[in-house]
Amino acid sequence: MPKKLTMAQIYTLRRIKSGTKYQLDGRKKKGRELRYNVFSRVYEGMNCSSIPVLFRSGLIKFTTDTKVADSLFHSVELTDAGRQTLEESKER
Predict the structure, then answer these.
(1) Superkingdom of this entry's organism (predicted)?
(2) Distances (CA, A) of 42 to 19, 37, 51, 56, 75
(3) What's the Cα-to-Cα distance from 91 to each of 19, 30, 87, rounded to whole Å?
């Protein structure tokens, strides 16, 4: 476990594991959660400040290995360290 994670960060890791879509911009400064709006039938981005912190901690990574554009948002997924951290924080 890198450092003490907040409950919001652990909750975000759990949601990534369960399949919720999260994205991080190419500058690695802004994160967002994609929520489906049933009325407009599109995904809407909601700010998620935990994503850049989790990326810097090495708990999530970009899903693609290609060079990321700075101005675009890219999908993220759990790393092995992120999965291990989730297993260690089961009691929280």
Answers:
(1) Bacteria
(2) 17, 6, 22, 29, 16
(3) 21, 29, 9
Encode the chain (92 residues) as per-residue pLDDT tens digits. Answer: 557 899 999 999 999 999 999 999 999 999 999 999 999 999 999 999 999 999 999 999 999 887 878 889 999 999 999 999 999 987 76
pTM for this model (two decimals):
0.88
Number of domains the chain contains: 1
Domain that holds residue 39: 7-88
Q: Is residue 42 part of a domain?
A: yes
